[in-house]
Amino acid sequence: MSRATANLLLLLAGVIWGMAFIAQSTAMDDIGPLQFSGIRFLLAFIAVLPFVFWEKRRKPKAKIERKYWPTLLIISVCFFLGHVLQQIGIIHTSVTNAGFLTAAYVVLTPFFVLFFFKGRPDWVIWPAAFLTLIGIYLLSGGDLSALNVGDALMIVAAVFWALQVIYLGNAAHETGRPITIAAIQFLFIGVFATGLGLIFEEVSLAAIQAAAVELLFAGVLSGSLAFTLQAIAQQWTRPSDAAIFLSTEAPFAAIFAAIMLGERIPPIGLFGCALIFTAVLLTELGPLYLKQRKAKHTL
């Protein structure tokens, strides 16, 4: 596969994830957030199974041993809380806000690595964090009281997304089975969210049928296909390229929200979105640039 083709696949993943915010929002007109999350990821688990078997054949020596089970539980719980909070929050906020506030996990991740895992993030993280805070402030229209409960839930969800990314990255590197780990977390949230939905939400076959298109899109395309595209494409392109194309999820969410839902935000809010997007790119690309620069000086 050429680098150009790989980058196009990553861009397609960003488009799919951006559009998934639309599906997550419109489905709430018919179905509860727990039922939607459960059914969505049960579909994602079923759809990703062929790729799990493909990964197993491709890496026959890579196995998920018992010692990784506690880590897999942490990954699954963080994934569950991140997604469910996001799904509940999107009922109360706009798709545009959901996309950009969720992207804050990219900036939070290095902070958690620093404070909880004794890592040493690059200095670019600090200006990125500052840009993110200013961006959130401007996204509220310059009045933090304008941030509603949905926005708050998106920020809390970003905390769990950040933790999930850290643990998932470590487990995927050690086991060599990223798609299998994804399938495990899909099954976890599918079973538990569906079970909780049966207890706390009114179950209606008609409601599920009404949300069928959103469920299929979010489950099959966003849940399994986009992740598999990412896993395959990142083997054929540079990390800096992958960071750029995958981070387009947030602006694509805003674009689709404007086209399909008629969402509009004032100029100051758009500037806030731009700052958050800049912080995401700075967090992803800054360390790579510094590493390349250091390598040139050592030659």
Considering DSSP H and I runs of 4 or more, what fraction of the residues is helical? over 70%
| Cα-to-Cα separation, first versus last residue | 31 Å
Principal-axis shape: globular
Alpha-beta content class: mainly alpha
Give the beta-strand count: 0
Radius of gyration: 19 Å
Largest sheet: none
Global mean pLDDT: 82
Can you put this structure into words, describing what you see?
With 299 residues, this protein is an all-alpha fold. The protein has one domain. Helices cover 80% and strands 0% of the residues. It contains 13 helices and no strands. The mean pLDDT is 82.
Main traits of this protein?
mainly alpha, globular
Write a brief caption for the model.
This protein is mostly helical. The protein has 13 helices and no strands.
Summarize the SSE layout with pairings:
Elements: H1 3-26, H2 33-58, H3 69-89, H4 95-102, H5 105-117, H6 125-139, H7 149-175, H8 178-200, H9 205-210, H10 212-233, H11 239-246, H12 249-261, H13 267-298
Helix pairs in contact: 1-10, 1-11, 1-12, 2-3, 2-8, 2-10, 3-7, 3-8, 4-7, 4-12, 5-6, 5-7, 6-13, 8-10, 11-13
